[in-house]
Amino acid sequence: MPAKVVRSVLLGTALATAVNVGAGVSQSQKPEAVRSAARMSDQDVADAWMYLFARLLVLRQQQSDFREGFKWNELVHRKPGAVDWPNPNLDVAYSEAWVATDENSCTVVTVPKITGRYYTVQFLNGWDETLANINERVFPRRPAGAFAVCLRGASLQLPADVKRIDLPVRHSRVLLRVELGADWDEAVRLQHQFTFRTTGSPTPPEIPVTPAFDLEKLPGVEAFDAADTALDSEPDLNPGLERYASNARAIGRAVKDPVERERAHADFAKFGPAIGHGVIVNGWARPAVVGNYDLDYVARTLIAYGGIWANVVPEVLYYRASTDGDGARLTGDDSYTLTFPKDQLPESFASYFWSVIAVDSTHFRVLPNPRNRFLLNRETNPRYNQDGSLTLYFAAVKPADAPDGNWLPTPKGSAYRLTFRFYGPIDGVANGTYFPPPLVKRR
């Protein structure tokens, strides 16, 4: 069953206000939306809020992008590290775009020839669900060249050397990743060889306007004020979730002047640690689904909240830790070690690369530090122990016994969480039987 995340959103003062508008008015005389909201349980309201919030998170990022200067069907190449969304992967150079297609147009993506370096062009819909990837794993016979991204069903003539990819939506978000590796200049050169061009003249949509909010203070019942705007602007492709959308609309129409706004996400933290219906082992959470969510809208919302634009499992698997192995919250006031046995080194579970990054626990941005080091990976040249094991260190000041390439600075006074990424997951990471070792607080 879906998680209860928003207990008592409207069963307290807010719902009473909405449902009892007009003393002496019979139930049959009240608007249907009000009567419908009155019949909902607190579970119904909780589910509707969690369902809707994923769409609001994507719209929040879309509005931010276009305020920055994004234009439809134009690729924006970012400098390494220069991205602004929760929990970025600083192993890669990113390029971004919003794509619009219709019955008479496609967006042609030119992919350069890349060998020995991870890359992918990921397309997502307005619910943070992955629609397609372009790379040598998906197209092994022809990984480079021109790919036309089109609206499914569009009747268009394309050159014979263009590979067509159909999307089920008119508008999508693009995230292009090129592994930085040891040679950042080469990675950036390759990044800039990816290009976009549009066939035809698609009509770009209006950007829906929904309330802005800070991740430090999530919207409560006011999230439902934007239900119709958010849901009208983008279909949810997953069948079986229609009732949550219907309930969100009904609540939005019923509640016009809510009083109680602080408890709308009262149980949000309950499902956050496990990332919805995921599993926690050794203090590390592994989501049950990622990239494509089917009926698990709880995971979809939580992943969009803490790490928007996540890709599908064949591309990458994410583990997250907010606590050490004893369950105590991670903080820059303490020092931790993470030791991998020689027969379970992180590189043995990734076809491409691994990394671990620390972000703050509110906005999920990397932690500033004097070293300007924001992650550990093979490019930091970690040193292995004499027995072949690998120990990573997380501390404000480099421990005396820590090789420099094994240490990630975590500033004092900062609560944080770690994300461990495995690109091209294999073996236990791919099948869900592996979890990283626990973090051990040094005494």
Count of β-strands:
19
CATH class of the largest domain: Mainly Beta
Radius of gyration: 23 Å
Q: CATH H-level name of the largest domain... which superfamily? A: Domain of unknown function DUF1214, C-terminal domain
**Going across the major beta sheet, what is the strand order?**
10-11-12-18-14-15
Could you tell me the CATH topology label of the largest domain.
Jelly Rolls
Low-confidence parts, pLDDT < 50 over ≥5 residues?
1-30, 257-264
What is the count of structural domains?
3
Helix content range? 10-25%
Mean pLDDT: 88
Order of helices and strands: HHHEEEEEEEEHEHHHEEHEEEEEEEHE
Gap from first CA to last CA: 42 Å
Reported CATH architecture of the largest domain: Sandwich
Shape: globular
* Helix/strand class: alpha+beta
Beta-strand content bin: 15-25%
The biggest beta sheet reads: 6 strands, antiparallel
Oligomer: single chain
| Individual helix count | 9
Task: Give structural notes.
With 443 residues, the chain is α+β, with helices and mostly antiparallel strands. The chain has 3 domains: 13-62 and 209-261, no CATH class; 76-199, Domain of unknown function DUF1254 (Immunoglobulin-like), CATH 2.60.40.1610; 272-441, Jelly Rolls. It has 9 helices and 19 strands. It has a 6-stranded antiparallel beta sheet. It has a 5-stranded antiparallel beta sheet with strand order 1-2-8-4-5. Strand 10 (279-281) and strand 11 (284-286) form a beta hairpin. Helix 2 (32-39) crosses helix 6 (242-254), helix 3 packs across helix 6 (242-254) and helix 3 runs parallel beside helix 8. The longest helix is centred in the first third of the chain and has 27 residues, at 42-68. The radius of gyration is 23 Å and the shape is globular. It starts with 12 loop residues before the first helix and ends with a strand. Residues 1-30 and 257-264 have low confidence and may be disordered.
